[in-house]
Amino acid sequence: MNSQDKIDEAIRNPKNLGEMSGADAVGTAGSSDCGDMLRMWIKFSDEGGKRVIDKATFQSFGCQTAIAVASMATELIKGKTPQEALSLSGEALSEPLGPLPPIKIHCAQLVEGALKNALTGEAAPSPGASAPMLADSLQAKGTVKINFR
Ligand code: FES
Fold first, then answer.
1. What is the arithmetic mean of pLDDT over 71-94?
2. Residue from 85, 107, 111, 114 carrying the catalytic annotation
3. CB burial of residue 113 (10 Å; 0-12, 13-18, 19+)
4. Which atom number of ligand 1 is nearest to the Cα of residue 34?
């Protein structure tokens, strides 16, 4: 299966798509290359005294490659510590899809940016309140953390 086939497959059945209520962390990134945006929610759990990623979900106004990479990435980071997840580059996150064409490399970096923003402290939604939908954020320009790469 080539890279495009794997992307098509991930698009047909994206994993972990959607907002997560009760998330511990949320991170958003936007691409200056194409204007696409992606948000990721993370929930941690305690595993033998170690804080690990229990679950991650995403929402995207992005291209299919970004959705495919986010789908892979949310699976890949499960069970990792925040430090381990932070060390993953866009290239590592998209590795299961095979090498991306050069014009699609920023799509994986968009996912990396959202993940890093989530892990490095963009405010988590307060308990009981759901995080704003990506569409709301786009309308309320200026409230979204843009990660220019
Ligand atoms: Fe910009 Fe994919 S084309 S995120």
1. 96
2. 107
3. buried
4. 1
Helix or strand (DSSP H, E) at 138: helix 134-139
| pTM beyond cutoff 0.85 | no
**Domains of the chain and CATH, by start:** 3-126 (3.90.1010.10)
pLDDT digits (tens, 9 = 90+) for 16-70: 999 999 999 999 999 988 999 999 999 999 999 999 999 999 999 879 999 999 9
Non-local CB neighbours of 21 within 8 Å, separated by 6+ positions: 130
Tokens of 101: 């064409």
What residue type is 62 in one-letter code?
G
Six-digit token string for 70: 């986010």
**CA 97 – CA 10 distance, rounded (Å):** 9
Q: Whose CA is nearest to atom 1 of ligand 1?
A: 34
Q: Measuring from atom 3 of ligand 1, which residue has the nearest CA?
A: 63
Closest CA to 84 of 46, 123, 51: 51
Those residues whose C-beta lies under 8 Å from the C-beta of residue 128, and which sit 6 or more positions away, are: none
What phi and psi values does residue 57 have, to the nearest 5 degrees?
-130, 170
